[in-house]
Amino acid sequence: MVVLAKPAALEQISLVRSPSVEDNFGAGLPVVDLAADGAAGEVVRACERFGFFKVVSHGVGEGVVGRLEAEAVRFFASPQAAKDAHGPASPFGYGSKRIGRNGDMGWLEYLLLAIDGASLSRSSPAPSSSLRDAANKYVGAMRGMARTVLEMVAEGLGVAPRGALADMVVGDGAASDQILRLNHYPPCPPLLQNLMPNCSPTGFGEHTDPQLISILHSNSTSGLQVALHHDADAGDHQWVTVPPDPASFLVIVGDSLQVMTNGRMRSVRHRVVANKLKSRVSMIYFGGPPLEQRIAPLRQLLVAGVGDGEEEEQSRYEEFTWGESHKENKLAIIYIIKKISAETLCSDLLA
Ligand SMILES: C=C1C[C@]23C[C@@]1(O)CC[C@H]2[C@@]12CC[C@H](O)[C@@](C)(C(=O)O1)[C@H]2[C@@H]3C(=O)O
Ligand SMILES: O=C(O)CCC(=O)C(=O)O
Ligand SMILES: [Fe+2]
């Protein structure tokens, strides 16, 4: 959710639980082959129409993904006391069921790790040196993909220089605000399943990511759903499940990129429904800019049509810096499960 020039009233929707969704992205899923000719145009079209796309021919080695996922699985399988020793997430570190600082809840546990330059920051509470090493190799691969994608966005939009967006996130020496998140969604226990045969508890409630882009990898357990844009602002979203594909990645448009393209690209609302039977593990790289970066439409896009006698395009958003957006929560607004009795009932099962 982005703050428009005339701030819309924020509806606070506390989801009791996500209804199960029949719709499934099948052949309509936007897929971009990064090695194909015309990939830049495909990237822009997918970002404009869906706010996300699946990436193939990404060049990331299976070992890099598999090693970090194995480290994540090992950590989340460790005794609760050992995990709690790395929390509470404030915001970085280990968290369980509490998401962020607004009292939002989700059926998940996670590690939130800050990145400094091209690797985890030294202050980041990585639980072991082996996880830290695996994470650093993974972050290196994600930074490469973020550069490729953001350069294609600039190319596709006709923005120069080609690194205009990429350098904000992965520029040498840029003190950019990148984050690595490892999520584990335990299966929904039978008790909960019986209580809600047609629904599943919310793993991670509806939200948009506030950065420029997020790059998501998950194991083969489904759960991620996206809201199709066509009525996104009207409040009635069509939620569609994104089939998991461990061989690929999902690039997700963040609120900051929506603002920088003056709304031409739209951040996509997404959420996770906990799977009834299997654990879901996901790893997300968040490509944020430096705190002092102005979050405003790129000037080149506002004046693009002026040469043909057109008026300069007006900005649709109030201007702020990335640091300010953090403080006032101007960007991603989470609608997450507050508390369900069943969730409370079963919390000891998770502990
Ligand atoms: C409720 C919240 C969790 C979040 C910070 C926030 O106040 C609103 C944005 C949320 C989000 C969504 C994408 C990422 O998972 C995240 C790390 C981020 O940068 O923004 C989370 C934040 C969080 O979990 O602290
Ligand atoms: O875990 C997932 O699949 C998505 C989580 C997510 O959207 C986030 O961490 O911002
Ligand atoms: Fe997200």
TrEMBL record:
It is an enzyme of class 1 (oxidoreductase). It comes from Oryza nivara. The keyword Transferase does not apply. PROSITE patterns: FE2OG_OXY. The gene is OrniCt029. Its EC number is 1.14.11.13. This is gibberellin 2beta-dioxygenase. Keywords: Dioxygenase, Iron, Metal-binding, Oxidoreductase. Pfam families: 2OG-FeII_Oxy, DIOX_N. Its cofactor is L-ascorbate.
